[in-house]
Amino acid sequence: MLDLDEALVKLNQVDPVKCRIVELRFFLGFTATETAELLSKSKASIDRELKFVRGWLYDQLHDPSS
Fold first, then answer.
1. What is the pTM of this model?
2. Which of 33, 36, 46, 62 is most buried, judging by how many CB atoms fall within 10 Å of its CB?
3. Which domains can be identified in the chain, with CATH numbers?
């Protein structure tokens, strides 16, 4: 859990919008459509951002020196 928190802090520094998307989707349970509406983005945009973030988080959690 601490590694995830550190990765999310780093993500927030790099791209606060992507971090907000993660918070809304995974911690608050919003759907992609709800997240898109809240952030004034398209659902496709949210889906793209999440795909990127999943890969980014995977890299961070498997190679913390990144």
1. 0.85
2. 46
3. 2-62 (1.10.10)
